[in-house]
Amino acid sequence: MFQVLNSILRRQPSVDPVQPIAADVNEPDLRGAVNAIGQNASTIGREAAEVRGLLEDTQKVSTQQARSLAELATQVVQVTQAQAAIQAGSSGSLEAVERARRAVQEVGTEVVGIVGKLNEVSQAADSITQIALHTRLVAFNATVEAKRAGEAGRGFAVVADAVKDLAAKVESSSQQITATVRALGHRIDALAREIQTSDDRLDRDGAFHAALKEVQRAVAGISASAKQSGGICSALNVQMASIEAEIGQSSRALDTAMARGDALLKVSERLIEQVAECGVETEDTPYIRAAIEGAERIGALLEDALKTSAISMSDLFDEDYRPIANTTPKQHTTRFVALTDRLFPQVQEGILTLSPKVVFCIAADRNGYIATHNRKYCQPQRGDLAWDTANSRYRRIFNDRTGLASARNQRPFLLQTYRRDMGGGRFVVMKEAAAPILVNGRQWGGLRLAFHF
Predict the structure, then answer these.
(1) What phi-psi label fits residue 326: left (phi over 0), alpha (psi between -120 and 50 degrees) or beta?
(2) Residue 390 neighbours by CB distance under 10 Å
(3) Containing domain of residue 221, as a range?
(4) Are residues 358 and 384 in the same domain?
(5) What is the pTM of this model?
(6) Most buried of 35, 45, 70, 169 (most Cβ within 10 A)?
């Protein structure tokens, strides 16, 4: 296309870039060829903008997927570590239960020994009871004999009565000891049966050991589940690494496609610009002319504001963008917003009436900051993200590819094709003519005039 255009331009006489081509014999053919090139370039630009927008959407989704996958991979690693810790803890618990079982078994053996000793105590108490019983009988017989002896046996009778009473007390105490020891023995024997194990049959184990075995089975189940889950997580880690590599490859392919799309878009935009520069009136010419004139008027207004001391140079070129609280999308303010609110609408709103195709006309500083938008887009935010994105576009920084290119363009004009986000998932492909805004020879920004195809 460049070769065709250059050959056409070489054949035509020198022209003023803002005046129509001088009439000659081949003027109709030339105009038709140039217009055809411009229309074809415009069509290519529109399609390239659509493709670039779709690639950009896909790239955002891919980036989000990669980010989510990375977070998921981190969580899977954490789960794997937790499962390993559970498995290690379960093994420790099983060992602890086994140690408790052995300790209790040892206690059970000691308890059995205590039962034996208590039986010996009980037998000794029984012997004492028998001895006390015999002693009481002997004392009773002695008392009878002392009474037969009359006065001579009175002292012996007193002793015999005392021995008999003492034997009765000993017998009572021995019987009480025997009963207590037997009761204690029964309890300790029952405890021994509870904490002792049987090697031949499970149902003969004590309740305590049966409970320990239940705990062992439960802990072993937890350990096995943790091991199985750890294996699954390890396999999942391998699969996720593979998916991550594939997403990375897709992302690189998307980056390449985006770069190729940008290159194609720039070619089409440059073709359209060259058609406009050759002096042939095209469908874009009125918008380009309006952007240039509007930028000059904005620059003149700002220069006049400096002359009248309505603002200082430092305030006019303020880049301290201060965030406005509770705004989404984020809005900012600067020291020149009051001035732009007063001066810019008289230019911007007037250009909106150029054609129904005009979408917006705004002045952006060199960083893409829009202090004052068209009135219809200067609505206060409502808290509805989709509505605010589409209708509350003032006090915002648009530093995307198109916004920065228009704001920093230093050529007489720049013509771009792009897809505009209207909010709520709606996009519109449009063209944008931009011209630099100069203040005393210094670039303040650029005037952006967007219009439909």
Answers:
(1) left
(2) 16
(3) 54-277
(4) yes
(5) 0.55
(6) 45
- Asked if 259 and 298 sit in the same domain, the reply is no
Which has more confidence, 453 or 209? 453
Residue 357 sits in the same domain as residue 402 = yes
Strands ordered across the beta sheet of 414-423: 358-365, 442-452, 426-439, 414-423
Per the structure block, which two tokens stand in for 323?
Answer: 């965030």
Q: Where are the beta strands (DSSP E) in 301-357?
A: 322-323, 332-333
How far CA 300 is from CA of 130, 215, 296, 304, 437, in Å, comes to 133, 88, 6, 6, 9
H helices within 15-26, ranges in order? none
Domain membership flag for residue 23: no
324 in Cβ contact with 396 (< 8 Å): no
User: Can you tell me the distance from the alpha carbon of 43 to that of 4, in angstroms, rounded to the nearest whole number?
Assistant: 17
Position 451 confidence tier, pLDDT thresholds 50, 70, 90: very high
Give the tens place of pLDDT for each residue, 9-42.
Answer: 343 333 333 344 344 435 666 667 766 776 666 6
Q: Which two tokens stand for residue 225?
A: 């589940």
Query: How far is CA 438 from each of CA 294, 295, 317, 446, rounded to the nearest angstrom?
Result: 12, 8, 12, 8
